[in-house]
Structure formats: structure tokens, C-alpha cells
User: Fold this.
Amino acid sequence: MTAVEERVNVTELAYHFAVTAETIRRDLAVLDREGLVNRVHGGAVAAQTFQTTELSLDARLRSAPGAKSAIARAAADFLPSRGGSVFLDAGTTTNALADLIAQRREPDDLSIVSNSLPICLALARHDVKNVQLLGGRVRAITQAVVGSTALRTLALMRADVAFVGTNALTIDHGLSTADAKEAAIKSTFITNSNKVVVLCDSSKLGNDYLVSFGSISDIDVVVTDADAPAHYLNQLRERDVTVVVAQPDGEAPGAETSGA
Assistant:
């Protein structure tokens, strides 16, 4: 059972491996004792470990750069029309989207609010004018602004689209991250926007972090990469989430609407 499958059924496993259901039950019992799965009625679920460890910003910038670039290009299709407003969450994939915004013919046609120092600095270097950095305490590991000052400012704002990053995404736990203060900012971005676009590379699907900041029902669009498991994306579509599979350079993104 992989992380993204989350749950397995005794009958299905018996059919798949051409063994008896009793054999599967014995095997699952062994895995349960070893802490690898949790036995439930009719099957087993993945042994959840709600992570708290975070990679440094430099390490995350080196992780899956091709996928993040493709996701950013696909996510750019959801930027609002001229005169619109966006929330840009802190993160390496949203940073790639900020670079694309800076390269637009008229980058000043958007009003941008972010809690990310790298994003705002990158936009400033390209002389993008309609950018607001939230004030507050800076978390060194992510270079994200957090805290009560940022939340009070953000409470007064509304945006057409929130582009939100996440450390993890599961069907049951939704969007999650390691730090409660960053989660509070992300949650407010979601609450105070008309559309929520989640930028999530495939390595984050099926993982869980300690603090949930949004449920699947809060999400309008998930943009991921071509390595995302199809059955997992189908579960998102079944919950009325629009799924966009970003393709590598030179290929058109695979936009797939929900089944609603």
C-alpha cells in the first residue's frame, strides 16, 4: 500500500494477489503489529505519521524544479484578468509563479499580496509596482511572514484568486503544513479569496503534516505534475475539485474538470 492509497480492502487484495481473504487478514495483522498499517474493519489504512520536520528553503528549491516550473506555468492560466487581485502564498512553487508574473508584458495589471520575502523581492527586482508584503515576524526556515500583525492586515483584504502552496495533501486531512502560524496565514488566504488554486507537486500527495489549514471542500483547483497517481486525482475530481496535470516543457497542460 502506497501513501496515496491510504486504505486497502481485504477482498480486493485477495483478488489482486490470488490468495484467500484469511491470508490477507493474517498478513495485515502482522503489518499492524509492526506499525506499518492500522487495521480497520474490512481492511487497513496507512499508518499515519503527522510530520513536523521541514526542509530548508534552499533544499526545497532544489527539490523537483522541473515539476514546480511546469506547475507554475499551468497555474498562470488561473491568474485573474487585468485589474484583478491575487494572494501569493509563501513557497517554492508559488515563487516560480511569481517569476512568471514578473515576465508578463504588463505585470502591473495585478494587485499582489504575499507573505513571502523571496516572492516580494523577486517582484521588486522586476519593478512590479502593485505588490504588498504582509508585515510581521519572519520564519527563517521558510522566509514567510507570520503572526498576529499579518493576520490583522490580511483580515481586511479580499482577492480574486489565492495561489496556495502546501507541504501535504490527503483526502481525509486536506491541506497541511508543519507550523501553526504559517497554517493560519494559509487558511486566511483561502477564506478571503473567491477562488483557491493549490500548487502541489506529486511528492506531496498522500502525505500528512501536523497542522491542517484547509479541507478538500475549500479547494477549487489543484495543479500538480504528470507523476501524480491517476486514482488519487480521480478522488479529487469526485469531490468537485478541478484537476490540472502540468506537463513538461513543450507539452500542453492536461486540464481536467471535476465530475460536477
Q: What stands out?
A: The mean pLDDT is 86.
